[in-house]
User: Fold this.
Amino acid sequence: MAYRSGRKIFRPGDRVVFDEGYRLAHLPLVNPGHPAVISEVDERDYRNGRYETARHALVMPIAAEVFAESAPLGALEHVMKSARFAPKIAWEIGERRRARVHATLASGMPEADLGRYVVAAQELLQRTGPIPVCLKGPFLGTRNTGRIYFPVYPQQIDGEDPFALLQRRLGVSATGIYLVGYYHIRTELDAVETKELVELVDQWRDRVVVETTISSLELYATNDDLALSARIHARISAREPQA
Assistant:
């Protein structure tokens, strides 16, 4: 897996400061009144965190009850909600996204190619069957600073990463990084809050917080990067995909 290269490194005295990607795609939905919000950019169809034209993505969904039933995740949330930075987490966004929590496997799909993507995903699941995965502790990446993820570790199939197999079958680069965006920061952290968050991440990094089995993938159409507006274009399993 490629998580080490994608992890953001914080030095003593650093703060969590929102990067441009978060300010454009996420912050307008998380905290629309924040002064760092980027409402629009020339030649891009973003307006206040939403696309004018829907985007399509192949995702690995995780049911809400999987998170609700995880004792390790409950313990982590207890620690987070007791932390100095807790008021700066947009807990309500997590509630709104509960039915659409996922890791993106491929995005930016042309509508003309959607049928091909569905067939490729179905063929993979017919070969592998349900794919066991685990999610480890919180991950802060070098992109979308302000978003806290859980990294996904799929069980290997015949010695290979099954999601990398799928990405290659789709004709996209194998990433080795599959992230579930779970927590969103509404206001930038000061140095003390950042230190506390980084210490928490370090303590939980190698702990498994969720274990589940992925028996289907979904093809989303969405007008925002938090999937608040997501519609399921197709649900794909080893059986015939359901529109």
